[in-house]
Amino acid sequence: MVNLIESNTGNFSVGRDGHKITRIYFHRTAIKGDTALGEANYFHSHVLKASAGCFIDLDGAIVQSVRESNTSWAVDQFDENEISYSIEFCGLNNTPLTAKQISTVVAFIKGDPLLRAVPLHRLTVAQIKPRKVGGYACHKDVTSAYKDPGMSHVDAITEAEIAQILKGVSA
Questions:
Q1: What count of other Cβ atoms lies within 10 Å of the Cβ of residue 113?
Q2: CA 106, CA 163: separation in Å to the nearest integer?
Q3: What is the mean pLDDT of each run of 10 residues along the chain (171 residues)?
Q4: Looking at residue 94, what is its pLDDT?
Q5: I need a surface site. Which of 37, 117, 123, 153 has the fewest CB within 10 A?
Q6: Sign of torsion over alpha carbons 159, 164, 169, 171
Q7: Residues linked to residue 63 through DSSP beta bridges, in sequence order
Q8: pTM for this structure?
Q9: How does strand 62-64 pair with strand 135-138?
Q10: Residue 157's closest CA among 133, 137, 130?
Q11: In Å, how far are 50, 89, 127, 154 from 106, measured between CA atoms?
């Protein structure tokens, strides 16, 4: 079951300006001891001018912060936000995703028609900036594609984990 704790309205845009979700980006919260509930409550209570679509705990609990019909501000490029949905995994970098996190994200994507429509394709860094191809990537791939100064993300979402998610969604 997905709980909804909507992010503060100062952290996202209502609607998608006519755009469809064609990309899903994965990211780590990388904060020791954080939880999906704690992250969602923080974004609900504070204007950060940033957001994520949902947060997934180590135990698989999921809290949605921005509905799929709205635009989360997950990356610095607004146009990129309008065509993507950001999923944040709780837990420290350099630790693997748990089996429950993977099964939860697979069920979440498969259960949502807007997310299920995203092509089952692992985006390369070179494919991100032109915005012509849909698929899946890590947040670090986006910052690499745009060469954002000061944005050196180490998502700790491995290629094997992305492959496992894509395989689960395709099943």
A1: 8
A2: 11
A3: 95 96 92 90 96 96 97 92 96 86 98 97 94 92 77 73 97 94
A4: 75
A5: 117
A6: positive
A7: 3, 55
A8: 0.93
A9: unpaired
A10: 137
A11: 24, 13, 23, 22
